[in-house]
Amino acid sequence: MKGAFKRMVAGMPIFLTEAQGPAEIAFSRDGAGHLFPLHLMPGKAVLVREHQFLATTGNLDYTFNRVKGVSNMLLGSTGFFVDRFSASHQEGVLWLHGYGNVFEKELAQNEQIDIEPGGWVYRDETVRMDVQMFGLKTGIFGGGGNMIWNRFTGPGRVGIQSMYLHMPTSE
Amino acid sequence: MQKPPQPLPTKLEEGQASGIRYRIDGELVPVLHTCLDGRARRPTRAAL
């Protein structure tokens, strides 16, 4: 995957196993959850939350973006990565892992859904994601925390997991 | 009324794409079995 080198330069470890047939090979993750395929047609791309990737056919292109701010507020770190997989010339398959169970919401044009920040797994590139933050007050002088969620606006698909684990990082 | 999110299938008997057949089974910790026919120009890749 072409973007993997960029990710290494950015300080994110990325180790991949490569398999070429004819042969059989099986994969799983070290957590209870849900595996599912996403078939990407040429010209289509999907954005995936970090640590959800399991496997892909070798004909998909890969890159990533770092989302700053959200994780600052949530997890005391400096951001998180969103992986982007795209098919350029032929259909490819991407297999993802979600914790708990995974649900899919198909958003119509301008239809919106609000999801707890750790709850989304993937989204079509056509789906816009915004951060919604609300301050919580506990009285006149009382402080409070922030309530945060992500707002997704269609058209396109959003994948939702019913539980999540924040993988330990060096941050 | 909006349609609620739909659960994705937890099992898949026979998936297929260019150069690869696969199935997903198992409930708590599911497994992806792939069968590569060797015709794919680029190999399948997986996270460690």
Structural category of chain B: mainly beta
Number of strands of chain B: 5
Low-confidence parts of chain A: none
Number of strands of chain A: 14
Kindly report the average pLDDT value of chain A: 83
Strand order of the largest sheet of chain A: 6-7-4-11-14-9
Give the largest interface. A-B, 48 and 39 residues
Oligomer classification: heterodimer
Uncertain segments of chain B are: none
Integer count of domains of chain A: 1
Characterization of this structure:
The complex is a heterodimer of chains A (171) and B (48). By secondary structure, chain A is mainly beta. Chain A has one domain: Mitochondrial biogenesis AIM24 (Double-stranded beta-helix, 4-Layer Sandwich). In chain A, 7% of the residues lie in helices and 51% in strands. In chain A, the strands form 3 sheets. Chain A has a 6-stranded antiparallel beta sheet with strand order 6-7-4-11-14-9. In chain A, strands 3-8-5 form a 3-stranded antiparallel beta sheet, with no helix packed on it. The model of chain A has no long low-confidence stretch (mean pLDDT 83). Chain B has a domain of 29 residues. Helices cover 0% and strands 50% of the residues of chain B. Chain B has no helices and 5 strands. In chain B, strands 2-3-4 form a 3-stranded antiparallel beta sheet, with no helix packed on it. Classes of the chains: A mainly beta (171), B mainly beta (48). The interface between A and B is large, with 48 and 39 residues.
Question: Quick recap of the structure?
Answer:
The complex is a heterodimer of chains A (171) and B (48). In chain A, 7% of the residues lie in helices and 51% in strands. With 171 residues, chain A is mostly beta strands.
